[in-house]
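Quick start: what a row looks like.
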Amino acid sequence: MKKLKKDNNGYVLLKKMNRLGFIPRSFIYNDECVFCKLSTDNCLFNEMIVEMIAKDYGISVAETCIGIYKTSTYILSKSVYNPYLEDMFTLKDLTNNSYHFFNDFESIESLLMNKFPNDYKILMEELKEIFLFDALIGNSDRNYKNLAIVVNKISREIHFAPLYDNEFMLDKVTITIGRYGLGINKDSFKSNINFLESFLLENDSKYTDYLLSKLWIIEKDNILKVFEKVESEKNVELSMFNKEEYLRLFEINRRMIICVAERVKSKKRVELRKII
């Protein structure tokens, strides 16, 4: 968001109110669409930490900065698509705003197969990548409003939009029993299964190996580097308490992922012996 005018601290000073006297949820600033959301410190830090982790992981997420209005702090997120060149549809849009849609792999695959029959297989691979990233950051809120498809108006190229609304990372239930906003199938939401374990069991072993290869990103040494990047690039200060708590929660999530991966590998070895 280089075009946004900022003060000496790097914060965007919000001045214009809408007719009701509130900061609008979105606005155009220097030809850029910006989404604005009132924030607590933890949610603000979460968004910024995810933004830095995503760079290490190699996945696109919304670019964020801090907005200030009087004594309130806001998360400002740059739009994840260019409305002049692209169309964007959330999964909720694609279901015609249905509240009965199950946000799981099977339901999403059926939806994408119907809407984008020539591209749904590529999109499903991208969705698996998103799921593994959410497992790494312990995100519990990848619901069908937080997943969007972008279509280039000229080339018709289709892909998932950069990830947004990432503030619910390191959810304590998610990092202990592997429950995410994105389910495996409709029945998974009704059971107590570990979504990550189910996903890894149902898919090729390459996904287990891939996730394990990314665990260095949430190890202590790298997370400390992430803190440094957040503080220097976003001009915020994380307290020692916040840092220690983040490190503790990331370590819980890392150990959970390792335990799940070991169980999955063991179960697959048993299944292989049965076949042989």
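That is the whole record. The chain has nine helices and eight strands. Residues 9 and 32 are 21 Å apart (CA to CA).
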